[in-house]
Each structure stands twice: as structure tokens, then as C-alpha cells.
Amino acid sequence: MAHYFITGASSGIGKALSIALASEGHVVSAVARRIDHLKKIKGKHKNINIFRADVCDRLEINNAIEKSIKSGGNIDCAILNAGKYLPLGGLELNSEEFYGHMMVNYMGVIHSLDSIIPKFIGLQTGHIVIMGSTAGYGGLPRSAAYGPTKAALSNLAEALHIDLTPLGIKVQIISPGFVETEATAINDFKMPQIISASKAANNIIKGLKSNKFEICFPTGFVIIMKLLRILPKSIYFKVIRWITNR
Questions:
Q1: Which domain holds residue 26?
Q2: Residue 218, preceding bond cis, omega within 30 degrees?
Q3: Sign of dihedral through CA atoms 224, 227, 229, 235?
Q4: The total number of structural domains that make up the chain
Q5: CA distance 12 to 102
Q6: Is the CB of residue 107 less than 8 Å from the CB of residue 74?
Q7: Rounded to two decimals, what is the model's pTM?
Q8: How many angstroms separate the CA atoms of 243 and 224, rounded?
Q9: Which residue did the predictor score with more confidence, 235 or 64?
């Protein structure tokens, strides 16, 4: 069985993944800021070990990685899932919130990789999974703070795939559509083909076993978003407004 290190495990997809993977018999190191939430998750399965850490703090997350290795052995797969989302657009520009999104969503991944990549290189094996989003494909309503961080992660994952694959390290990115979580619960617009966190976790686990670089779902929504990327922007904007009822 493998050792999974999962950030952002206190709720949503991270929580669902932790429970599902532990139920398969894997060792799971669940990491998040909210220790009270983590304790509830630990009660779900004996294979789950919990570690309190803020991904914005490089030393905290690196310390969590070291502790997880001591308790669960070498990490086989790091799922860097921690994220921040607030629906912010051009009418409510707030530099502090934009900075916060970049610190959690992007630098949180970098802080984790700062420790994980050298360990994987030393072992000449490993599996890095980055939580992206279809929101990174193009601009969406009130996603001006969140979307660009996911676009940056997509670029990062591609670069890492090129650099690390020859060293025996597998790199994947997850690009989900809308998923029922604490974050999306605050959206005030239509969310096409939204799915549950447990269904998202099942799709991800299936994708982790594949050789696909990108794990994306639900299929219909993803196909539409990918097609929109290659259309003229004048058409893109019209379709997005129609889809989201903006």
C-alpha cells in the first residue's frame, strides 16, 4: 500500500480523498490548518494520520512532511490540494485577497515541493499531483483572484512534468469543474454539471492510476471549456455569459 500526503484535507475534495484512499488500505497523511476538522477525519479511519500546517508557511509545511515520513514512511504520492477561493471580480478588486489567493493556491504548492522534490529525486521515484481547475482555462465570472492562480499551476505542472519525468517522478494535474464544497457554496451564479466531493474523489483516484497528465472532469463541461479556449474571444465571452447566466 502507498503513503499519500494530502494538503487541504480538512474539507471538500481533500477530505473525501483522505477517507477514500484510507479505505483502500493506504496510509494517508492529512494536512490542514484546522486541527479540529482533521481530528474528525482521523476518526473516520485508522490509516489516517493528521498534521496541522499552513501551506503559506514554508517551515510549517516542511515540518509536516518530515513528521509524516517518520510516522508513515517515505511519501509515495503528494496531492497538493490546499486552496483558497472567494468570488472576486473586477468590480471588487482587493489586492490583499488577490495576494492571499496566490500565497495559498500557488506558493502553498511551491512550499510543499521545496521539500518533496529533493526527496523524490533522491529516491528516483515519486508521484506529484497538483490541484488545478478548469477555472485556469480562461476567465470566468468573479474568478479574477482564483482563476489566475490555477492558470499558473497548470503552467507549473507542465514544466515539472518535462523536468521530472525523466527522473522517474510522475507529475499530474487535476482540473475539476464545479464541485460541491464549502468554497462553491458561496457562489451566486449557475454552476453547470456540479458534482459532489465524493464523486470528484472517485474520479481523481481512477485518474491517479492512469498515465494521463491531466485528470479532468466532468467530461461534458471539460470538453466545452477546452473547445472555448480555441474560439475567438468575442465568442468565448458570449458563451461564458450564457453558461453562467451572467
A1: 3-244
A2: yes
A3: negative
A4: 1
A5: 20
A6: no
A7: 0.93
A8: 10
A9: 64
